[in-house]
Write a structure and sequence with these properties.
It is globular and about 60 Å long. It is built from seven helices and 17 strands. It has helices at 134-137, 152-157, 180-184, 222-230, 239-248, 285-294, 296-308, and strands at residues 29-33, 40-44, 56-61, 63-65, 69-71, 78-84, 89-95, 105-108, 111-118, 124-128, 165-168, 188-193, 216-220, 233-237, 255-259, 274-278, 319-322. It is of the alpha/beta class.
Length: 323
């Protein structure tokens, strides 16, 4: 019997969606799922180090979110800068797309761009007559479920404390809970995966296997590969880290590339032993990945308890540790 997208649905009251971050990064609650016994605990994120062993290695995604959302000077168009191909060329998602056909122009902050290619998926390749300054004129592309525009606080809080490599459209949200002080006492390593626009795209097919996964760029350094290979347990911070490590497998090696791996039940994990992640949207590829790691029934029970216990959901919400 095929696995259906609706099998990963759950009821979530709108008031449990976190539209803004907590006052303190590490102040989140943490639901702990023990995969072998099925035990579920309700803890605080500050308790996270208690679940680590001396031989564990935490792997984090050090991508940095760029303010990639732009608006045309006439207010009629919205652009999301997905990938910079040269100093003057950006691959962009445009709304409404029909207004920017091949050869058409758009002006942002006095800089004019021309559409020089239209891709099959509707993205536009735009060549600008001067470099775009996203930090000055761009906005963060906050997820739609927050129901608001970005503000000055988001420039800091919708970014991990270890963000370094620019290129993500969305934050690797499992890492938002960490402070620099906590990481000082935990063995950890970094890789880079730039979270792309696919993170906003829902699963629209009825049968899970019919979904086509988006591709995202990653980089794994020689140092990180060596440390992962020597670790007793590998604890992935987030689904982005999981997708990179599972794409390559153990032994890990220095590598850069792209992955479109789609992890859903049944799946045999070959790289990670633990996963820290936020709560994900119903029927999303991310809740499918988590279900593959801990079992769908156990994960859906954990989500049921999280709703009942009034956890905060999604990007600025609470977290779940699966070990």
């Amino acid at each position: 019997m095929p696995l259906l997208t609706k099998d990963f649905d759950y009821d979530l009251p709108a008031e449990l969606i976190a539209a803004r971050p907590l006052a303190e990064r590490s102040g989140s609650r943490m639901l702990v799922v023990h995969r072998e016994t099925g035990k579920i605990e309700h803890r605080m994120f500050r308790d996270f180090p208690e679940y680590l062993r001396s031989e564990d290695l935490l792997v984090l995604n050090n991508t940095k979110v760029i303010p990639a959302r732009l608006f045309s000077d006439d207010g009629t168009k919205e652009l999301l800068c997905l990938d910079q191909l040269s100093a003057l060329e950006w691959r962009c998602l445009v709304k409404p797309g029909k207004t920017l056909r091949m050869g058409k122009t758009v002006t942002v902050a006095g800089i004019t761009g021309s559409v020089i290619e239209v891709f099959e998926n509707g993205d536009r390749l735009i060549r600008w007559d001067a470099p775009l300054d996203l930090n000055l004129h761009g906005h963060l592309a906050l997820p739609h479920y927050m129901g608001r525009e970005d503000d000055a606080l988001d420039r800091d809080r919708y970014q991990t404390v270890y963000a370094e490599e620019e290129g993500a459209i969305a934050a690797p949200t499992a890492g938002l809970h960490f402070t620099s002080e906590m990481l000082e006492n935990i063995s950890h390593a970094f890789l880079t995966l730039h979270v792309g626009v696919g993170t906003f795209r829902p699963v629209s097919v009825e049968v899970v296997n019919d979904h086509i996964m988006h591709s995202e760029r990653y980089v794994v350094s020689a140092e990180t590969a060596s440390r992962v290979n020597a670790a007793g347990r590998v604890i992935a911070v987030g689904t982005t880290v999981t997708r990179v490590l599972e794409s390559i497998g153990i032994p890990l090696h220095e590598q850069r590339g792209e992955t479109d791996i789609f992890i859903h039940p049944p799946y045999q994990f070959r790289a990670i032993n633990g996963l820290l992640t936020n709560f994900h949207l119903p029927q999303s590829t991310l809740i499918m990945l988590v279900s593959a790691f801990a079992g769908k029934d156990l994960v859906m029970e954990a989500y049921r308890q999280a709703v009942a216990e009034r956890y905060r959901f999604f990007s600025y919400g609470d977290c779940m540790l699966l070990i």
